[in-house]
Structure formats: structure tokens, C-alpha cells
Amino acid sequence: MTKRVTSFDVAKLAGVSRSVVSAVLNGTPGIGVSEEKREAVLKAIQELNYQVDAQARGMKTGRSHCIAAYGNVSNPMFLQVLEGMQGACAAHGYHVLLYPSSKEPQHTIDGLLDLYLQRRIDGIVALDRPHQANEAWIRQLVKHRLPYVSVEGYPHHEEVPSVLMDYQESIRRALDFLWGNVGLPPVYVEMHHGAHTLGWGDQQRREAYELWMKEHGLQPRIAAASADLSWEEGAEHWKRCIQEWGLPTAVLTNWSRGAVYVSRAAQMMGVPVGEQLHVMAADNTKRIHEYLYPSITSMEVPYREMGSAAAERLVEYIEGRRPYEDKSTQWLPAILAVRQSVATVSS
Amino acid sequence: MTKRVTSFDVAKLAGVSRSVVSAVLNGTPGIGVSEEKREAVLKAIQELNYQVDAQARGMKTGRSHCIAAYGNVSNPMFLQVLEGMQGACAAHGYHVLLYPSSKEPQHTIDGLLDLYLQRRIDGIVALDRPHQANEAWIRQLVKHRLPYVSVEGYPHHEEVPSVLMDYQESIRRALDFLWGNVGLPPVYVEMHHGAHTLGWGDQQRREAYELWMKEHGLQPRIAAASADLSWEEGAEHWKRCIQEWGLPTAVLTNWSRGAVYVSRAAQMMGVPVGEQLHVMAADNTKRIHEYLYPSITSMEVPYREMGSAAAERLVEYIEGRRPYEDKSTQWLPAILAVRQSVATVSS
DNA sequence: CTGTTAGCGCGTTCAA
DNA sequence: TTGAACGCGCTAACAG
């Protein structure tokens, strides 16, 4: 066990005072350092393998160079966002601290604020909307001027900067792709839960579909379907739909499950998916499309890019390069993943 | 923007010295605090919403109360482990810092050691074996007495404590389940890559299969198969196998993919999976079994439990409750996930 | 222009 | 129960 190396040791070995060591490391303006001394310091640092004590530095500067990732740890998508955050943070010398959203008492949303008050983190990227607390929580944020960016959070909110997927654009891209490759007017399959209430994103999608069809002089065809059917009911339902649509047909579904169901029903009927029936999903929340057969072409939510953009932006707030008052929303396009369920024209 | 609240403020409001504030918070032995002073302090803390500055505390105590999770951020399994770590850490007042394993220069394995030298972390849970560096890396660990626990890492290694799945036990449990429910002698499907080299875990599995069959007076039947076949080749191969085995049959596969292939081939032949052909996987690395139809019964690698056990153990090292010299390996059983691809007897 | 000294930040801990 | 020192790095003020 080697004892800790401090700036004092480095200074002694290099024959300078500790302030010079600090100046060399941080390029402090106001403290000039001659070339030879600078090199002596660098050499001593190398030799002793000196590492600045992060706690001591943080205490002085008031920055921990850590940001919290607040989210649902059992959601696989979360990992994508983390990956993106990680990349952006590393590029700026920040670290990512995990803070799961859960109902357990040790992980309340106030605990997250405490982390900031304890100076353990410099800001937060949230990948989950704080449930209950909502407005009260947001007031806390603003009161403490806590740097905060939400992923997939609050579109158009006055007080919370967000990074979101551009749902409309993603539908347009999907339709362009389908139309360009198979040249058939796409049917829109709209899955929903229970009482037929659409989320904000699904409303956007539907609007975009209707507009796109209009622009192309095509008649919209929308097949709404509950996601709560049993396997048997579902299978029957989708077989009937396929017969109704006729063949060949192109289909775009709002949720990933829709594409799976349609594809499966087609297979049971002996209809070759990717030839007579072209299926595409507007998202891939279960991340299973590539493992299915045939694998399903889809628009992928750009989680990694969203995480990266959010972290990037958070660092701007922290380092004062972006004013705290800028709460604008940032929109990212979905990513087209070409797979087997749609025939492609060879260029 | 409220100014930071320090222990000084609390002391003043409570009419005591700062050391008393500290003693109340930490229960310092050797500093007695009368009941009324203690309450005055607590009240002042509440009132001012005082939070200890983590950096200042850490600087003094030499502990950051952070542990690093080193792993491959693009591996979905990683998230499970994180979830487990998170739970155990929270229970002991620790935080989880993410450190991805990657080839990028900002995330070398030495960077991980530096984190420790900088006192940013108190220890490491590794979910990925540091590639190249191996022996050199382990020497570094030992040299600095860095608390370190590996998940799925180095079975039986002298210098690195590990948490692993008990492969043999998982096979036994799977076979017990199959045998108990369908009463057919299970065929073992052994997938492998290229040159037919089995990993350590797969060797364990095979041994366990052979032994179990012997103990039950059954003739082992092993079908080895390359995972590198094309879809068409694979389909042909598995159809032939199913014909060869005859019906009804029970099948246990070492990898999750094997079960998917067999199941798919059966469906193409019109053989009802879960009735005439019972399929089970010994792992579920792609985590898609529950989304397939029929969903596939499998033994699930207990990633969450492994993460939890690893973190728990790391904290023991850090807090000196377990000697650094204890490098023993810890084995965890796989978890049986009953799904549709195997018929179950109703109790 | 180069470099030093002294004091600070904040909580912990030991001697009194 | 408390005052004072300490841990480690940063930086304003100051001197060569």
C-alpha cells in the first residue's frame, strides 16, 4: 500500500511551491511559469504518478464534475441513454452518477435534490418524469437553479429544457421509405391501450400520417387496435385485417408490437412478409425487431443521441456557456433501421 | 438562489459548536451530547435544510462513498447488474458511478485506477473482464489494495474475488423441471461458434447434463450445432434433428438462440411447441424469450442478484468488515422462468 | 514576467 | 463540551 501522493510531494521533487503545481495543471492566469519549471513539474507528476484529489479540488471549486442520470433502471432503453450521456460527459471531463427512479424511500425525488445540495453532483439528466411531485419538484429546481435537462420529458414546458424525438418527422421518414421502396399506399395501424386514449406522441404520429397521405394525394387508411387482446383474439383480428387490406400491401404501425402482430398473422396465413406484405414499425421499444424472423424494419428512437445531446447541454448550463433561462426544447430525428420486413429496391 | 448552508450556520442557530453538529450527525463516540442540545441541532438542521458537503466530508474521511461500475454499456445485461448494485449500494449509503469499458482513449482501464487514486471512488465492481491488460491490471489492483469484485469474471482466480452463476446447478434445475413436468428424457442441444471450442461455462453445463442423465439411468443424447449457419441451412438442420429425435421429445439448449431455432423449425413443421415438443433454454442472453410465441421457458442468469451480491461484498471490503485477502468465489443459482414452450403439470 | 506566501473552503477529530 | 488543528488544493495579494 503506497501512501497518497500530494501536490506537496510534487512541489518538493520539482523544487517549486505548490501553487506552481496547481498553475501547471490548471493553466491559472495570473501565475506565470517558465518552461523549465513547467517541465520539471510535469516530470515529477509522471514520476510519482500524482493524481489530484477530486474531493479537495471539488471542495475548492464547488464543482464535483459529476452529473446524475435519473431514470428507471429496469427499462432497457435507459441503457442507451446512459451510453449517450457517458460519451458526451467523458468528452468534457464529467462522470455519470446513477440515480434510479423508484418508490423506495431511499430514492425519493428529493434525494436527488439533496445530492445537488450536498455538492455531489453538478446537475441532472432525467430520463423519467418525476411522477407525483411534478409541479412542486419543478419549483424546487428553479429555486435552487439546479441545472436540469429532461429526456423525453416535457414538450414545450416553460421551465424545463427537454430533448425529445421528433415524432412527426419520424413518421414522414418512414412513409418516404415505404413509398420509395414498395410504391404502395401505406395503411396506418394505431395500437392503443384500453379506453382509446392516445398519448401526445401518438397524436403527433397520426397527424403526420394524415398530412403525408394528403400531400401525396392518397386516401388515409387507419386501423385502430387495442393492445389488450389475448393471443387468440389478436391473431383473428389481424388475419381479418390483412384480408380486408388485400395484397400486396404496405403497413406502418405506431408501436413495435403492432408490427410483430401483423407479421405473425401474415405468416400464419402463408403470406410472405417482405414480399406481399411490407411491414414497418414507427418505434422499437422492446428492441426485439432484429431478432425476429423476418426481422422488422423500423424507426428507432434515438435514445443514445438524446442522452448525448442532453448531457452536452447540461454541461453548457453548468459551465455557464448557456444561460439558465434558456429552456428551449430540442428535437432529434428518429433513425431508420432497414431490415427484412420491407422489400428494398436495389439502387 | 439561496446561499449554501454550512455546519457553521447550524451551530450558530442551535447555540453549539460545530463539533457538536458533526457528533450529532455521525454519532461520534467520545463526544457526548446532551439530549436537549441534540434536539436543538436536529431542529436547526431541519429548519435550514442543512446538507453535509460531500466533498468536504470525503476529504476528511478519505471515503467518497461512491463505487464504480465498470462494464460494457452497450450490453443490455449490464443494466440488470446495475440495478442489483444500485439496490445494495443504496442500502449502505453508497452511490454508483458509471465507467464504461471501451476502446476510446478517455476510458482506458488505467483511467479506472486513476479514479481510485483521485479518491473519486472507493472500489470497483467489474462486469467486464479488462481485455488485454489482464495480469498487469491485476498486479496494479493488488499493489494499491484497490477493493475490487468481478461479476462473471474469473472463476477460481487467486487474486480476484468473483461472483458467478453456478452453471452446473442451473442445468440440474432445468433438467429436474423438464423431467418432472413432461417425463421425457431430454436431448441436449449444444450450440458453439466456429471451431467447436466450448467456453468454460458450456463445459460445466455439458458435464452437468451427462452426470444428471447418468444418475437417472438415461442415455445422454447430445446434438452439437454451429451458431454460424445461415437461416436456410439452420432451418434444414433443425428440421432433420426433430425428425431424428421423434415425438414427443424434450429439449434443453445451452444457449438461448438454440431454443429459438428449434422452436421455429418445429412451427414450420406444424409441430406444436409446448405439446409435442418441449423446448427449454439454459440462458436468455438476448432477453427475448418472453416476447416470442410461444414464449420460451428458460433458466435466467441472475444478473441482478449478482450485481447485488458483488456490491454488498465490495462494501464489506471497503468498510473493513471483510479482509482484503479473502478472494473467494461466490456462486449464485440461475432463476427458473416458466413460460409456454414446456407443458407443466398442474399441481 | 515569474514565483511566493498566506488564507480559504468545510467538516472531522484530538487534546484540553 | 469545546477550541484549534488538520486534510488538500486553489487563488488573491504581493514581491523579486
- Assembly state: homodimer
The CATH topology label of the largest domain in chain A is Rossmann fold
Major beta sheet summary of chain A:
6 strands, parallel
> For the residues shown, what is the average pLDDT of chain A?
92
- How much helix is in the residues of chain A? 40-55%
Number of domains of chain A: 3
CATH class of the largest domain in chain A: Alpha Beta
Order of helices and strands of chain A: HHHHEHEHEHEEHEHEHEHEEHEE
Which two chains have the most extensive interface, and how many residues on each? A-B, 50 and 49 residues
Distance N to C terminus of chain A: 64 Å
CATH architecture identity of the largest domain in chain A: 3-Layer(aba) Sandwich
Radius of gyration of chain A using CA atoms only: 27 Å
Q: Which helices and strands appear, and what pairs or packs with what?
A:
2 copies of one chain form a homodimer.
Chain A: H1 7-14, H2 18-26, H3 35-48, H4 54-61, E1 66-71, H5 76-92, E2 95-100, H6 109-117, E3 123-126, H7 134-144, E4 148-151, E5 162-165, H8 167-182, E6 187-192, H9 200-215, E7 222-226, H10 231-245, E8 249-253, H11 256-268, E9 277-281, E10 297-300, H12 303-318, E11 330-332, E12 335-337
Parallel strand pairs in A: 1-2, 1-3, 3-4, 4-5, 5-11, 6-7, 6-8, 8-9, 9-10
Antiparallel strand pairs in A: 10-12
The structure holds a DNA duplex (16 and 16 nucleotides).
